Amino acid sequence: MGTNMVVISVVIVYLAVMVLIGYLASRKIQDNEDFLVAGRKMGPWLLAGSLAATEVGGGSTMGVVEKAYGDWGFSAFWYVSAMAVAFIVLAFIAPMLRRAMVKTVPEYFTKRYGKKNGLVTAIIMMLPMVGLTAVQIIASSTILSVMTGWDYALSAFIVTVVVAVYSVMGGMYSVVYTDVVQWLFILVGMALIIPFALNAGGGFTALTANVPEAKWSMTDGTGIWTIIALVIMYIASFTVGQEAVQRYYSAKDEKSARNASIITSIVYAIFAFIPAFIGILMYGMVQNGLIDGTVMANQGANYALPLMAVEVLPSFVVGMLFAALISATMSSASSNLLAAGSIFTNDIYSQYFNKNADDKHLLKMIRWTMFVVCGLSLFIAVANFTDIITLLVFSFTLRAGGAFIPYLVGHFWKRATAAGSMTSLIFGSITVALAENGFLSFGGLDPIYPALVVSAISFIGVSLLTKNKPAEDTENIKDEKTDIVNIQLSKTLK
């Protein structure tokens, strides 16, 4: 069997296994809650594997290799290390998120601040999901195109269809189980490329002889302010990001949610250095003439990792790596699709278009929404107008800029009001859009800084100036312990 056929065969078998897991998981679905939050039965290890696979996607693999090969050098490892820091912080927040007993972030806003806040949050959360899914399709399509020699647009179409089919079958059950398998592929597949690259380049010393010392800096490439901005962006974005918090909502209890965050942080801290080191090795191979760098120059540095794999790895290992890369991108894409379907159906469709829809109809609507988001993401992926990291950062920042402050603070500040939340959502999001598009510079700061400042000032200021009235169409969120006490009290009175 030819090299190309071996590679394709490995990937096809892998994809078939993912679809099979999705099908088996779909048999667990009994109602809407099973599909969205896996019946709230997930333990810490399953959740950690799912969280790790969800946030490590095209940006954390191919994107980091691209940045390490390019301007960031070895300091590109901070892109993933910042996630590790964020999940340590989330370990303290996760129990509170689990306690809220909601299915989506906008549902929390609806219960806490009223339906208008819930609708605005749903719109703000939905828009980045298209971009986030597109990022993963871009990465997957690049891999498939290099691997098979197929046209990029055709590869993007195939990837989109595969992701859509397996994602809509089993909901959160399917996503979590496939995520755990995919995370194992990511770790093994990415790690395997390093010893083979070193061997092909004549050892570490020979391979890195022409790598400038500056590229080994731990901070110079990214810059300290970018590193801080990444940490802040991840904390804010993951706290309100549906694809992340939906895992916490799925935890069987608060302790499982907290422990899952800690485990994920440790895994990220270890994994972060692998793609950054691969990017440096790739740079050395190009400088030494072992790999023709014209392809990156002509088509973009996001082709760095697939091209390196084809050059230095045995065919079976190439198949393993490509399966790992597709694992990284598909796990993130499926999570984003589920998040988009959850938000639209739970917080827009069932609230404004069909209030009397039963579970069966809502499940159908979730799946249709996921297909529509796939189509929009495919369009963006085929256009391929920007690099992976740029699109990811904008998507993360947009949803965090306005929603983070009212979402987090609203859990423990009783004085927070609906007017304060709405002002924060609108002004914070507008600040992100203006800063990202160059209309306002804010002294050259990353958009996440001014967005959070504007959001906090708006939220606190307006909340203090307005009455703390619960909206007529809302109810205060109660934790599980309060619900249990009320039930026991009711039984006692009877």
Automatic annotation (TrEMBL):
Entry's localization field: Membrane
Keywords annotated in UniProt: Cell membrane, Membrane, Transmembrane, Transmembrane helix, Transport
Annotated InterPro entries: Na/Glc_symporter_sf (IPR038377), Na/solute_symporter (IPR001734), Na/solute_symporter_CS (IPR018212), Sodium:Solute_Symporter (IPR050277)
One GO cellular component term: plasma membrane
Any Gene Ontology biological process: carboxylic acid transport
Molecular function per GO: transmembrane transporter activity
Family: Belongs to the sodium:solute symporter (SSF) (TC 2.A.21) family.
PANTHER family: SODIUM-SOLUTE SYMPORTER-RELATED, SODIUM/PROLINE SYMPORTER-RELATED
The protein's name in its UniProt record: Solute:Na+ symporter, SSS family
Source organism of the structure: Edaphobacillus lindanitolerans
